Amino acid sequence: MVRMKRNPTRPVRVGRTTLGGGHPVAVQSMCATRTQDVDATVEQAEAIRRAGGDLVRVAVDAPKDVEALSEVRRQTTANLVVDLQENYRLAARVAPHVDKVRYNPGHLYHHEKDKPVLQKVRSLVEVAREHDCAVRIGVNCGSVDPDIKARYPGDDVQAMVESALEHCRYMDDLGFDRYVVSLKDSHPRKVIEANQRFAAARPDVPLHLGVTEAGIPPEGIVKTRVALEQLLSRGIGDTLRVSLTLPNPRKHEEILVGRQILADIAAGRFRSVPVFDDDTLNIISCPSCSRVENERFVELAEAVKAMTVYAQRHALTIAVMGCRVNGPGETDDADLGLWCGPTHVNLKRRTESIGAFTYDEILPRLKQELDALIASRTAVEAG
């Protein structure tokens, strides 16, 4: 474990690991296997643990995932975190098998709208208390509570921060302090700004750092390094994840990259020269996880990167997302967005749906849309 200067956050125990309170920065990753494939999930969780992963996250999207999770818990010694996303009502069933529960305030907003958000948070806190679990309040750029987002037009970073602060107040009012916060975006600059603002407002709360949908290496590593170096060197951050688009057998490499970044910061080796000021083509792709319904997603992301080389000098964003949970919302801000289903890829132009295309059809259609977009912008610039 690498030790470095830390902000004075309070300690939060997660299984055998403690986040914050001056403890070494913890590194974590997420299983990309289907949770119901117990053997594959256990194998990947153990690979992540052996690589130096302090926490291993798994997704639970259905009751059958809960049944599998109990068996995964029995077969691995990893500190397990469950990612509930749109299924917070399963918390009581999964909590006995994990050490931390992560929920997304934006997704919490969309379910059981007749219930006040505080009531939903209270149910999560009661479950966490009963089963000795920590909680992560995980705010994502593409799924901020719409009511909060409407309060900050033109400042999506502050909307993220306010969402996190609101849920911290819920936790505090309930007398629960075993929680950490994450504020993630696909742009390093926004990750830096959001976490700096939050740390200034709540210096006591441990922070989980990461650039969501960082993409394919090496670009994904560079984006993550830029954000982590700027934050960790200022004492901000208590745990991290490097979210890379990798095939399943290589998911543990996220841990190796995270450890290397920590070692470099501790030794004073900084590489944060790239600024990512949106003046060139930016390809965003999510880290593969158990929600991916077709493993061709990783191949597609790599193919999009190769096909779009000719457009590098154009300030456009293309997002390639692997599932229907995060895909629709996380592609709304992209000039062109793709989110993958079992047999088709959904193509978008910002919030507008263009259509669904097979995996064999999508690249030519994406190029067609990209060429049209470039031509349109070129004509406008020409006056």
Describe what you observe in this structure.
There is one protein chain. This protein is α/β, with parallel strands linked by helices and 383 residues long. It folds into two domains: 12-266, Dihydropteroate synthase-like (TIM Barrel), CATH 3.20.20; 282-382, Sulfite Reductase Hemoprotein, domain 1 (2-Layer Sandwich), CATH 3.30.413. Helices cover 40% and strands 18% of the residues. The chain has 13 helices and 15 strands. It has helices at residues 38-50, 63-75, 91-94, 105-110, 117-130, 146-151, 156-173, 188-201, 219-232, 253-266, 296-307, 327-330, 362-382; strands at residues 12-14, 17-19, 26-30, 55-59, 80-83, 100-103, 134-140, 179-184, 207-209, 239-241, 282-285, 317-321, 336-340, 344-349, 352-358. It has an eight-stranded parallel β-barrel with strand order 3-4-5-6-7-8-9-10, surrounded by six helices. A five-stranded mixed beta sheet has the order 11-12-13-14-15. The protein has a two-stranded antiparallel sheet with strand order 1-2. α7 (156-173) packs parallel to α8 (188-201). The radius of gyration is 20 Å and the shape is globular. The model has no long low-confidence stretch (mean pLDDT 91).
